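ok here's the first one, seq then struct tokens
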Amino acid sequence: MGKNLTPRNEDYSKWYNELVVQADLAENSAVRGCMVIKPYGYAIWEKMQAQLDKRFKETGHQNAYFPLFVPKSLFEAEEKNAEGFAKECAVVTHYRLKTDENNPGKLIVDPEAKLEEELVVRPTSEAIIWNTYKGWIQSYRDLPLLINQWANVVRWEMRTRLFLRTAEFLWQEGHTAHATREEALAETEQMNNIYAEFVENFMAIPVIKGAKTESERFAGAVETYCIEALMQDGKALQAGTSHFLGQNFAEAFDVKFTSKEGKQEYVWASSWGVSTRLMGALIMTHSDDKGLVLPPNLAPIQVVIVPIYRNDEQFNAISEEAKLLTEELRAVGISVKFDGRDTHKPGWKFAQYELQGVPLRIAIGPKDLEN
């Protein structure tokens, strides 16, 4: 249990950083700009993932997985997109290390092991996915192609903040191919609506839906829709985006299909994604100076039971009672933790669970048993 949090009105940014660390959600790692998502934080992300995944599947999407590396030539194929991400790419140039002869116990990059073609660590997967789709799409019968992937991406950020902006982050990215402009556009709007519905109804965060201005559009998109959420410091946070890509990627990667009329046409595309940045939105929308505040359906622990006792006899009696209560609550789908640790006092536990945003706390003492 750390020190008290810096109040929001004193230093909002500091409050946020302290909260993420003290509530045990994530921490900075030995890799510059990359975070370690801790079990408690990851459990919240998993709940979001499960809900989103369900919504994607209900709208006909399937999950697949594509490579982490994108050959540079593929990356260059869609020029606007490549330019948009060029400044923040991590690039693999060699495939082997060797022992440094002048420095025993140290390794150096083997100059003999240079890759013929550099590999970009994916900042987004359009290039590798559209190159793949070329082999999957021949005729109108192959459309629409509705694919999503849960993955990690890398964008070399220098100024990082846990969950909000890190060099590596987790996300999902949908990539769809359609026979007509109208269909692709409808898909783009549908997914932005799904994000809005999820964030508002499941995460309890109000959002504004809309289209981005030209300068703010995704590189290579014809139109970018997004959801923006208002944080407590009065700033808006982009919480999800959905892009109508027109035929840009189909043309760049030569993805054509034979239409019902027997004509060769380029397919129409969309891509859409939300990331672990939603964790930042969750924290900054609901939490207060005492710690994390979680909507009950996102809380890894929904109810915590804390025993208050003076001796073993009392503890055992309380434990029995807590066990029955736990079974009752679990039977109706509520996650419960019984904190019977004798290493911490009840007051410490109360403060810790408040910091971690557990929605409901039940204290059971000898008097409660009598009643």
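and now the second one, same deal
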Amino acid sequence: EFMQASWDIEEVQAKGIQHLASFVKDKSAFPCLLTCTEVITLAMKTHTDSLDLQVEGCTLLLEIFSQALEQGVMMALDESVASCLLHTVREHSENEEFLSMLCTLLMMVSASEVAAENLRKVGIVPDLLSILRRFLHNDEICVSCCAVLWSLAVSEDNADQAVLESALPVTSAVLQEHLQDGVVAESACSALWALALQGCLTDSDYEPTAALLLDALRMNPERAVLVKNGCLALASLVRLSETAALAILLDSKGSGLKLIKDEYHLHFNEPGVAEALCLLMNEMVQYEEVMLDMRSQKMEKLLSEIKLQFPFS
């Protein structure tokens, strides 16, 4: 009430945020803090020129959302809060350090389907792409933005297709730039999977995107989630075009089928990986030429192994 009575006074808002932050460590205060997110974001929107207030507000929101995720509480931000966050992003689009924090917050927020939909409605995608282009070297920003893109693309069947299509080259550039960074590559593979699911690729995209995903699998074989997401993305590409399937067979760096076998044997205890591989192979056998090659590579032996390993799945 104290903050709401004096929106225009920066010092009131700053003191209010600092006082709310003092309750973060008190677990019993958590339900009350959950109700304060709108007040905090509105204070940030009203005083965008004060970087100190922005940082303190963002830090407090990160604390609240971290606790919410730990306790399994889904924070469904409404459109007005999403709009406030977008306003803050735009006002500080050059400040790399602050954006890194803000993008982490957006990643946490977008875990909620309702919040992801509201972020999409207020038009955050072009801003995310702009941030990625400007800070392609920043691994934290890349991880967060790709995770938000994934949430936005999978949350809505009728998403703005043109906007999402413009995300493909930027997401591919992120993966290319950070191929050896497993955390970033994992997030970028997820985003590419979502874009493929939404049909955001053109004929000229299938081959290079498939080759890039295979590179990610080769560079990070030990990361089960990346292998799973990479295979799901490849399966989505293959479903759309035989070109992607042939790109897997004829990859210039070695047979994609052999890579798939090796990845399975590395993660044979991971049902998620096995399921993603089966889905990929299921898509590949729809093309006769590809199926003949799979036979010659004895892929049925691998399928039999998977069937034995997961008889009840």
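notes on #2: The chain has 19 helices and no strands. The longest helix spans residues 51-70.
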